[in-house]
Amino acid sequence: MIAPPATSLEQMIKAQAFGLGFDLVGITTLGPVETSAAFEDWLASGYAGDMAYLARGAEKRADTRRPVPGTTSAIVVGMDYGGREPAGPVARYARGDDYHDVMIDRLNALHRYVDTVVGRQIPGKAYVDTGPILERDLARRAGLGWFGKNTMLINPRLGSFFFLGELLLDLELAPDAPFEADRCGTCRRCLDACPTNAFPEPRVLDATRCISYLTIELKGDIDEALRPVIGDRLYGCDVCQEVCPWNVQFSRGLVEPAFGARAAIANKDSRTLAREILAMRDEDFQAAFRGSPMKRAKLRGLQRNASAVLSAAESRDSGALDDRRLNDSSGLAES
Asked: How far is CA 145 from the centre of its chain?
């Protein structure tokens, strides 16, 4: 009788990660970051806009061993947030609970599991979109996907509607093979569909023209020339993901309850939500969006966006009315 192969530590960690609700798991070795120079060029081009915090800790971003000295390996995870949900005024990722909190809690639980299995406390730290780490680089090296032309990490089985997080550990782990292929081919649907032409070239995003930046990170007024094309988007944008063939084919419906739309957002069109936000006082905002990623824009940012949405809607209504009047007049002239 042939004995079954022993389960490796890496296999046990991945099984536990899946059990905690993560949809993708890979392991990589920490070290110099391949995309560091490209990131520095991107900053130098001014594409980060007001996001000055991205330039801080640049030396740490150049090598993934630096954020947590002594760490040698990263467990990189992805968590799906439901790419099949209907489009709406709020980007899909921001409709429910704050993904930072949800994922950090589970990565910390994974850390405790590793401690238990190894039999000692392993120094390390979990990150989700908050540390000086180029996460896409780590994820590609861990085999989770490739960089799409819209700059998103795309997984061939899941598309791109997922969050990334990582657990950096002072523990030697066998790495997975990096994802080497580029599966975008000649497709440029994401580039052509962007309402604000925010991609100066494939895999380069000018954040200052991106609707997600304009409705979330920008602190001042939105450029008047861009307001009409923002349309009914109050917070974030999913267009470049919606048109991606990998998402059309492989994105999933919402499974994680924490990412379901909260009452303040659910089943509301852009005008209704915009009017409600404009009527909010700070205490109303705090109650409605407690534990939500939308708090990042603060009430004043959401009210700025709401005003832009309603102004654009009024302009469209006025244009439609003028068109109807013109058609009516043409009809009368012919009769």
From this structure: 15
- Amino acid identity of 143? G
Task: Tell me the per-residue pLDDT of 193-252, one tens digit each, with 9 for 90 and over.
Answer: 999 999 999 999 999 999 999 999 999 999 999 999 999 999 999 999 999 999 999 999
The H or E element spanning position 299 is helix 298-334
Residue 285 lies in a domain: no
Supply the DSSP symbol for 1: -
Report how many domains make up the chain.
Answer: 1
In a domain, 319, yes or no: no
**Alpha helices, H only, 129-281:** 135-141, 189-193, 211-212, 227-230, 239-242, 245-250, 270-278
Over the stretch 310-320, which tens digit does the pLDDT of each residue have? 998 887 776 55
Please report, for residues 27, 28, 141, 280, the alpha-carbon distance to residue 179 in angstroms, rounded to integers and kept in the order given: 12, 11, 6, 46
Confidence (pLDDT) at 3 = 52
Segment 288-332, tens digit of pLDDT: 999 999 999 999 999 999 999 999 888 777 655 444 544 554 444
**Position 77, amino acid:** V
pLDDT tens-digit readout, 131-184: 999 999 999 999 999 999 999 999 999 999 999 999 999 999 999 999 999 999
Could you give the CA distance from residue 145 to residue 279 in angstroms, rounded to a whole number? Answer: 43
Is 76 within the bounds of a domain?
yes
Residues noted as catalytic: 129
Number of H helices, E strands in the chain: 13, 6
Q: Is 24 exposed, middle or buried (0-12, 13-18, 19+ CB in 10 A)?
A: buried
CB distance 170 to 114 below 8 Å: no
**What is the domain range of residue 144?**
9-169
Q: Which is nearest to 166 in space by CA: 22, 57, 44, 48? A: 22
Q: Is 204 within the bounds of a domain?
A: no
